[in-house]
Amino acid sequence: MPGLRFAAAAALIVAGMFPCVPARPQAPAATSRAPAAKLVEDLVYANHILYDQGVVDGFGHVSARSDKDPSRFLLSRSMAPALVTSADILEFDLNGEPVDAHGRAVFLERYIHAAIYRARPDVKAVVHSHSPAVIPFGITGTTLRPVYHVSSFLGAGAPIFEIREAGGTTDMLIRDNKLADALAITLGDHSVVLMRGHGFVAAGDSVPQAVFRAIYTEVNARIQAEASRLGPVNFLTPEEAAKAAATLETQMPRAWELWKAHAGKIE
Amino acid sequence: MPGLRFAAAAALIVAGMFPCVPARPQAPAATSRAPAAKLVEDLVYANHILYDQGVVDGFGHVSARSDKDPSRFLLSRSMAPALVTSADILEFDLNGEPVDAHGRAVFLERYIHAAIYRARPDVKAVVHSHSPAVIPFGITGTTLRPVYHVSSFLGAGAPIFEIREAGGTTDMLIRDNKLADALAITLGDHSVVLMRGHGFVAAGDSVPQAVFRAIYTEVNARIQAEASRLGPVNFLTPEEAAKAAATLETQMPRAWELWKAHAGKIE
Amino acid sequence: MPGLRFAAAAALIVAGMFPCVPARPQAPAATSRAPAAKLVEDLVYANHILYDQGVVDGFGHVSARSDKDPSRFLLSRSMAPALVTSADILEFDLNGEPVDAHGRAVFLERYIHAAIYRARPDVKAVVHSHSPAVIPFGITGTTLRPVYHVSSFLGAGAPIFEIREAGGTTDMLIRDNKLADALAITLGDHSVVLMRGHGFVAAGDSVPQAVFRAIYTEVNARIQAEASRLGPVNFLTPEEAAKAAATLETQMPRAWELWKAHAGKIE
Amino acid sequence: MPGLRFAAAAALIVAGMFPCVPARPQAPAATSRAPAAKLVEDLVYANHILYDQGVVDGFGHVSARSDKDPSRFLLSRSMAPALVTSADILEFDLNGEPVDAHGRAVFLERYIHAAIYRARPDVKAVVHSHSPAVIPFGITGTTLRPVYHVSSFLGAGAPIFEIREAGGTTDMLIRDNKLADALAITLGDHSVVLMRGHGFVAAGDSVPQAVFRAIYTEVNARIQAEASRLGPVNFLTPEEAAKAAATLETQMPRAWELWKAHAGKIE
After folding, report:
1. Is B171 in CB contact (< 8 Å) with chain A?
2. Residue B264: its chain C contacts at CB < 8 A?
3. Does the annotation count C109 as an active-site position?
4. Chains that contact A by 3+ CB pairs under 8 Å?
5. Tens digit of pLDDT for each residue in A68-77?
6. What's the predicted TM-score (pTM) here?
7. Apex CA D14: angle with CA D10 and CA D16, to 5°?
């Protein structure tokens, strides 16, 4: 399995690259408030799956709200998602600051995750991606809408966040809580928000659901772009989307098991 | 061979994921009415091939009419096609109900298969897919027509099924026999029917033929979309398509053997 | 190397599939007029490379004029190119008939090769492909012209063959010498001819050159289609193309060695 | 890891292909002016990464200015980048002539590198590619501009070099210092210059930076082409691009480590 061997070799290379990092830095301590091992495992799989499915490259990140403490969330240290192991997962508070970074670098854009967990108690996982298929929608102001039942979580369409309105001339990054709050307001109660000249964010009530939404946001973008060149598109109505989304909930494990198998065994 | 190792690893992972499922659930009993082992093998290969060739992802399914009892058909339990083994194949009656599900979950859309087997005695295998390349045609009302001899089975063009006409506002799924009958009527005596906002169905007189049609429906969609941007398309005439389809019948094993080799050894 | 393991596994599967075929059918006898082993090896590599580079799928074929007898050419029996071994190579005369088929099925369209070898003494190798990227040009009457120096062999543009003019309503196949002669006339002294609703043929003065032309015909098609959507295209002039083609001749081994390495060891 | 095994097998094949080449030709001698082993290693990785990421095929090349002598640069002998080992790296002077070619063939277009190192003391590495995604921009006169922060190094847009203005009717190659100087003038102080009917050149202040720019030039081209079909594009302003580029500098190692891991261990 390519994914498996890739991950193994990658681990060797990373080990060699950062000699100053302990071979097995400690995962969050196993106290009563430490997240369950299953949640950490899901989060590591999510990192590998998002790379394997083409939704992230060297950049992008995925987080999960702690199942033991809703005021904390888990996110890897600053690194390529495909190379993440459980030892790279750190805990953050809802201001986006690491509880204990163990001296490791953290993502500049961790505030994206923090702001969404603050604003949306229902959200348990967040994906941030620069997927090439999605960028064209944000930079042309084209609304991404569901072309089929599998992307019905797009509902009546994904809103687009314009960082110029919130921050003027920036380096395009969500590098503080003020910008992140503005992004969370644009997200509102949607599942997905596009970011002009940057990428998108998908939120879900579990790690598999957020990953599912990120993957099919990218697929929907490719289909919608192609369809728009053939003629006017007959999208799912908001009512069809709502009904389809409810059914789809029950079918997600089917995709998650496939993606895990394809990405290969972790660690 | 990536496919081979992927399947092997996937089997391990699935085994670990469903501890409540017996390691080797029983295949349909070897009575005089049980389908031939060769048919089950072809159906398992079909599942893997359709994933390997990009026609299905975590969703989609393929069935075969029993070679021992035309009032029965074979279809896997509800799972990703790439992970199917012979132990996952169940037998269904022509109402779409499992003869004995052995307690396992079945596809919501098994009625698609049942209705087509009821309406079309000549059909021995059915593929249902959400292929991204095909969706744009259904949602823009663009007729898919044969661009070359290899997709000549498209004849004068594939009809498009609009579920709103048959069921009003739905969750887009063919989840009962009433919707499935409407779909079968739109299919008529064609090889392929597109489903607006959902995907398509390909039917054939054997598992390899249905798989062949599903794969080249997807290829034709990509070619036709690309060609339509260069100028008006000179399609095969219905007469050319009919002649080409007759010749093509004799050449299908060449592709089937390749796809089997590429997908990798099963089980 | 995926290609290597794929070929090995494929050989096993094919061996199991055709029990009536001797495990190692005889290659053309090693008489003074038998082609050199190096030519046969190049031809087997060409089969694997064309599949590995996406120019052929289960269909398509490549031939080489015998280096010992210019009135003979070499072509595999009727099978998927990716699975060809030296034992599958047969010798044909310039009427397109096998010298001795050893009871094996031959391609319906072997006449394509025969007619071009008859009409073009300079041609030593011929590729026939249904590449999806190229079909849109033939079916919209769009001339394929060189977008960069690497495809400069397209010169002032590739002619398009319309089988209706030569054969009326057909099954689209070049299944006799009459149709093949008409195709060869349209090819004229070009390197490549497109076939409406079918595919294309590339000819060269060696196996590597014909393969190179087939691969970059496909790449040129993708680039030209994409460019034509951005605005009017500034193609290489015929003079630039002629100069670039002369230089390119000396650089082809670089690509051939790469493609061999990527396709993997044969047999 | 596919990349790893591919490289290993490729090395075997190449070894067998050039029996006249010593099995381990000497790398530049380890004198005080010889480049550091780390620079040679980075350059070999760059060759493999650019192939693995789809930016070069059998053609294209990447060089690095010597870290011991700014009047020298390192470039492989004339061969496909994917097959390069440290033994294939040669040293050149700023006129583009090899210091000692050890009898091996050198690239016709080595002058591209020489001219840019002459004109731009800040440049430490140069990539030349024929990426299919980028060609459409040069041949339609469409300016490539940054669609997102990751390609912010494109600034206000990449200039396009028209070889007809500098050399009249040519074979499209930069085969002498006169043409190369004209190219360097068009590049000016940009990071990237497109070459009409040929490809592009990316320059950077390190091997990882030049590789990063080459890879994301290709990604930007795909995104921009797609976006331009959806509507008018809202590019990064030059000010946003400048700010984003400054931030991005600090994030590049993340991508470089991933690409190395994916390309596989060299030698």
Report:
1. yes
2. 9
3. yes
4. B, D
5. 999 999 999 9
6. 0.91
7. 120
